[in-house]
Amino acid sequence: MAEEIQKKMQKEMEIFSGVQKEYKKAVSQKQQLDSQLNENKAVKEELLLLKKDAEVYKLIGPVLVKQDLEEAKQNVNKRMEYITKEVRRTEGHISALENKQDAIQTNLNKLKNNLGNLKISV
C-alpha cells in the first residue's frame, strides 16, 4: 500500500514539475507582452506629438520606408489591440495554471498524509 502511494506521489510530482515549467514560461511570455505594450504606448505618444505634415519612416529590414502618419497611428493601435488581447489570454492561462498547481499540491498533501498514516499504523 505504501509503495502504491509513493508511486502516485512520484507521478503527481512529475506533473507538478511540468506545470511549474509551463507556468514560468507563461509568466515570461506575459512579461514580454507587457514590455511590447509599453513600447507601443511610447510610440503612440510620440506619434501624437507630431504635426499632420510630419514625415514618418518605418524600418523594414535594413531600409527606412516613408509611411503616412495616420497609417502609422493605425498600425500602432492595431498592434496594441492585439498585444492587449494576448496579455488577457496569457493572464487567463496563468490563472488556470495556478489553479492546477493548487489542486496538485492538495493531492500531494493528501497522499503525504495517507503515507504518514500508514507508517504510524505499521
List descriptors.
single chain, mainly alpha, 2 helices, Probable prefoldin subunit 6, PFD_beta-like, Helix Hairpins, 8% strand, 122 residues, rod-shaped
Please tell me about this protein's structure.
With 122 residues, the chain is mainly alpha-helical. It has one domain: Helix Hairpins, CATH 1.10.287.370. 83% of the residues lie in helices and 8% in strands. It has helices spanning 2-49, 69-121; strands at residues 56-60, 63-67. A two-stranded antiparallel ribbon has the order 1-2. Helix 1 (2-49) packs antiparallel against helix 2 (69-121). The longest helix has 53 residues, at 69-121. It is rod-shaped and about 80 Å long. 4% of the residues are buried. This is Probable prefoldin subunit 6. One of its GO terms (biological process) is chaperone-mediated protein complex assembly. It comes from Papilio xuthus.
Rg for CA atoms: 25 Å
What is the CATH topology? Helix Hairpins
Structural class: mainly alpha
Helix content: over 70%
Strand order, sheet with most strands: 1-2
Uncertain stretches: none
Q: How many domains?
A: 1
Intertermini distance? 11 Å
CATH class category = Mainly Alpha
* Global outline: rod-shaped
State mean pLDDT (0 to 100 scale).
Answer: 93
Elements, N to C (H/E)? HEEH
Strand coverage percent: 5-15%
Largest sheet: 2 strands, antiparallel
Q: What is the number of strand segments?
A: 2
- Provide the CATH architecture: Orthogonal Bundle
- With helices defined by DSSP (H or I, 4 residues minimum), what is the helix count? 2
Keywords: Chaperone, Coiled coil
Subunit structure: Heterohexamer of two PFD-alpha type and four PFD-beta type subunits.
Coiled coil: 26-114
Organism: Papilio xuthus (Asian swallowtail butterfly)
